[in-house]
Design a protein that fits this description.
Layout (H helix, E strand, L loop, with lengths): L1 H33 L1 H5 L1 E2 H4 E3 L5 E10 L12 H13 L14 E10 L8 E8 L10 E8 L5 E8 L5 E4 L4 E4 L4 E10 L12 E6 L4 H15 L4 E5 L2 E5 L6 H8 L3 E2 L6 E5 L4 E4 L4 E2 L2 E3 L5 E6 L2 E3 L11 E3 L2 E6 L7 E3 L5 H9 L5 H13 L3 E2 L1 E4 L1
Parallel strand pairs: 15-25
Antiparallel strand pairs: 1-14, 2-11, 3-4, 3-6, 4-5, 5-10, 6-7, 7-10, 8-9, 11-13, 12-13, 15-16, 17-24, 18-23, 19-22, 20-21
Length: about 375
């Protein structure tokens, strides 16, 4: 009897295995769908930045040499000539009494960004832009160029081969140009020589700066931090700043790492962005329109010129061949356009459907939105770019 009982138990176990796997799959999918709303929120890292952790802009003036006759015309560019003479004199070459005619040198502006916590010896990218009348920087080399900050101090030194994304090819009757040949980049072309002192470990409080200031978002960030720490350590100072006190015994870097991973749903103002140059309209999620009636008409005048040729009869001794103008003018006053009712939308899709029902293009839509705003039926701010 025992062997048969074991066989029965084995059969039952085999039948139950697919059911157990199905239950596990359902549980996993339920967990994924349950966490979907939380995943829709943004990390604090993406909507705010810690004050003091920022980039610093650098700028410098230098010379690019090695150009194939595409550099500045030294006779017309006095600053290029003086810079070249000064550079050669620092290297022990006297050219004051000479007549420089090189076309292989170009004066350039060098720009870069000093990243936060950049250390001595680290490298950063730099951008090179022609300052004179150089035709191309292709094949050029930037000579040693100090890069200064806003305080006038040198923070990095740049040098290297210029990489240009465009090119120019010309002949006697045609010229082909792709991209911009008077600017380029030098990846890792500058070495940091001076650091900006900034110590996180000694800070007793940290401020978070919101990229899009908003009262609601700032309060949500403070509430999320307080819920994570279990104490009232954060408070919103204004729509763009949240102050967080560092709890005793907490490591500042570890605390900032944990806080920036917290998820918060940012709020946004009801706003309509309009670019009249391109006819682009961007409508925010919270934009609402009260119920309005709209009639949109346009005046279209079409002028068609169809000149005809008038000539005398065959073998006629009198008369000349002339061109007789024929003009046809059509006027469309949009008489078929009638009032259309746009219901107040409770969500963005209903609002878009209501506006699309008017059957008009983006250019007319811009005028209609501005008119709806003037009538007080558009609960949003219109921003014209």
């Amino acid at each position: 009897m025992r062997p048969s009982m074991f066989r029965i138990a084995d059969v039952i176990a085999r039948l139950l295995r697919p059911m157990v796997a199905l239950c596990c799959a359902v549980a996993v999918l339920s967990g994924l769908f349950a966490s979907a709303p939380a995943a829709a929120a943004s990390r604090i890292k993406d909507i705010a930045a810690f004050e003091g952790v920022r980039d610093n802009l650098l700028v410098g003036y230098g010379l690019v040499v090695g150009l194939k006759g595409t550099g500045d015309d030294i006779a017309n560019m006095a600053f290029t000539q003086e810079s070249l003479i000064g550079m050669l004199e620092r290297l022990g070459v006297n050219t004051r009494d000479g007549n420089l005619k090189s076309k292989n040198v170009a004066a350039v502006m060098v720009t870069g960004t000093l990243p936060p916590f950049g250390r001595q010896g680290n490298r950063v990218d730099v951008t090179i832009s022609a300052l004179g009348d150089a035709d191309s920087l292709l094949g050029g080399t930037l000579l040693v160029t100090p890069l200064i900050g806003a305080d006038g101090e040198v923070y990095a030194v740049g040098q290297g081969q210029v990489q240009v994304g465009g090119y120019t090819a010309k002949g006697d009757a045609a010229t082909i140009t792709k991209g911009v040949t008077t600017s380029g980049r030098i990846p890792s072309g500058a070495i940091i020589e001076r650091e900006i002192p900034f110590t996180l470990a000694s800070m007793s409080s940290v401020n978070l700066s919101l990229r899009n200031p908003d009262f609601t978002t700032a309060q949500r960030i403070a509430s999320a931090i307080n819920a994570y720490l279990g104490t009232a350590a954060a408070r919103a100072l204004d729509p763009g700043t949240v102050q967080m006190a560092v709890p005793p015994g907490k490591d500042v870097v570890q605390l900032m790492t944990s806080v920036e991973q917290l998820r918060v749903e940012p709020d946004q103002m009801a706003r309509v962005i309009i670019d009249e140059n391109t006819g682009t309209i961007v409508i925010g999620e919270n934009v609402r329109v009260s119920k309005v009636a709209i009639a949109q008409g346009s005046l279209t005048i079409k002028v068609t010129e169809t000149p005809q040729v008038s000539q005398p009869s065959p073998f006629s001794q009198t008369g000349t061949t002339t061109t007789v103008p024929r003009t046809q003018i059509q006027v469309d006053e949009g008489a078929d356009n009638k009032l259309a009712v746009v219901d107040g939308g409770v969500n963005l899709q209903e609002l878009v459907n209501g506006l699309n029902s008017l059957g008009i293009g983006p250019r007319d839509m811009i005028s209609i939105l501005q008119a709806i705003k003037a009538a007080g039926a558009l609960q949003a701010e219109i921003e014209v770019m």
